[in-house]
Amino acid sequence: MKTQRILVVGAGHVGLYAALRLSKKLGSREAEVIVVDPQPHMTYQPFLPEAAAGNISPRHSVVPLRRELRKCHIVAGTVTRVEHARKTATVQPIIGPAREIPYDHIVVAPGAVSRTLPIPGLREHGIGFKTIGEAIYLRNHVLDRLDVAAATADPETRRSALTFVFVGGGYAGIEALAEMEDMARDALKYYPELKAEDMRWVLVEATQRVLPEVDRDMGAYTVEVLLKRGMDIRLDTRLESCVDGLVKLSDGDAFRADTIVWTAGVKPSPMLDNTDLPRDERRRVTCLPTLQVVDGDTVVEGAWSAGDCAAVPDLTGPPGAFCSPSAQHAVRQASRLADNIRAVIRGREPVEYKHKHAGSVASLGLHKGVAQVYGIKLKGLPAWFMHRTYHMSRIPSLNRKVRVVVDWTLAFFLRREVVALGQLHDPREEFLEATPRLDADSRA
Ligand SMILES: Cc1cc2nc3c(=O)[nH]c(=O)nc-3n(C[C@H](O)[C@H](O)[C@H](O)COP(=O)(O)OP(=O)(O)OC[C@H]3O[C@@H](n4cnc5c(N)ncnc54)[C@H](O)[C@@H]3O)c2cc1C
The whole model's pTM is what? Predict the structure, then answer.
């Protein structure tokens, strides 16, 4: 049999785990695995809030692809089109012309992007919270705003600098809000000019509850904890506009904020619009429980998908239910998907994916958390401890696990770093100022 070429689109939770397993379980004569991702690393997204808060080094919450996937061929680029009818994907490398890569099997796993709404000012002033770049930026930005507030004599500038708005109360939004507030509160020890009461942390959530992943009472507990910490929690409220940083809410309130973080859900990668793969009304790739792509009743031979971009039936839920977009499902689906590709290549039947969502764990800052796992509800320190042990066990590779534990241990003995490295975002500024422009006269 000819060597099968397996093309993995996206090296996130699904892509990395699937590629790793495929390359371990299939011999090099059976298959070659090509992984395409514009980033040189997989991002362990559940650690983004801790990376933003400075509890973990951002480098340790990502997994380098070339180190982990040694038996795979890594292509640094973006898949811009998939013509499955021709079994060909178009890849745009970081630099240079696009090229086509033919394949026998494709694993479509580009994940999701922030699901934004056409809100005036959001594009200009908002930032998402899905990438390591956004986490690093947000950390530097929040600390930088403390410096701005401490240095200004203008009360309006100060109020705006110290107002932080998070839109969306799922686990990403709640964890990001709680961790960032915790970090800023810690940092204030070094700012005698500022008091904790000067800061305003606002959560804007369109529904009547937060953390829909856990039971109502746990969501209510989370709100209670955040309110006790002085946060401004607006349920049943929408962001209507934020032109020039003037935040207008649906409850009629309006105020200025220098920081607007959008964490109100995700939608499948828009790259899927440039494919001939079948999709459902939410633009997800339609899949069978075997993670094979399906068009109506027909299996699309050689096409596989999983994770945030895929509609995978949840066999543990009521009829018509789909697996939620979560790392918990993504990594398990990845293993099933890899084993199923191997089975099909070896002429065996694929097996259905079945996993009952175990629950959720969320950190609410150092030593604070909320968790509901297999029906067991935990609050405060035990929940936070469970959050850490669970995610430490889940982040790929021993190398990352050790680094993360060392970060946590150091943070236990030393105070956390609260310095803004805002220059990272414009590193050439000083050099440009020092280097005169070449005008026509000086060139002559
Ligand atoms: C802040 C935050 C906290 C979270 N916390 C939890 C949690 O506690 N528990 C939990 O279960 N889930 C959590 N999640 C959700 C979880 O991270 C996602 O469900 C999971 O990452 C989905 O995996 P995926 O492989 O589908 O997508 P991703 O992991 O997002 O991977 C997609 C990959 O595809 C790449 N890509 C995108 N487009 C292209 C393209 N055109 N060509 C090539 N590559 C492409 C991207 O660069 C990326 O590497 C959290 C998410 C966030 C943002």
Answer: 0.91
